[in-house]
Write a sequence for this structure.
């Protein structure tokens, strides 16, 4: 069983930055960040394998960076140049199976 706890969400102005963190308990392999905006399906934002290979949604390439610290059993999402289209609840996922509780990101002036 893996438990995930996200942090770092909040309100930010367009063009601003936020860094999300996800702390995991238990053995983790692949990890990812997903998001769900109101009225939309949950979508993959970025993922990272145990060896550090990354994958990004086209909409965030060049703006978001996923990273992990295996010693701390944690994964991070650095989000830059945020727009209103990035407003959503962001969820951490581990091993394509376990989910965190979600953290709200709101981009608004």
């Amino acid at each position: 069983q893996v438990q995930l706890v996200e942090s770092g969400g909040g309100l930010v102005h367009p063009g601003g930055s936020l860094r999300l963190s996800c702390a995991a308990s238990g053995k983790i392999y692949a990890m990812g960040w997903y998001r769900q905006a109101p009225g939309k399906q949950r979508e993959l934002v970025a993922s990272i394998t145990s060896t550090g290979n990354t994958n990004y949604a086209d909409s965030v390439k060049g703006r978001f960076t996923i990273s992990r610290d295996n010693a701390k059993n944690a994964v991070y999402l650095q989000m830059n140049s945020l727009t209103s289209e990035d407003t959503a609840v962001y969820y951490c996922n581990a091993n394509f199976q376990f989910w965190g509780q979600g953290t709200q990101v709101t981009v608004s002036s």
The chain has a mean pLDDT of 96. The radius of gyration is 13 Å.
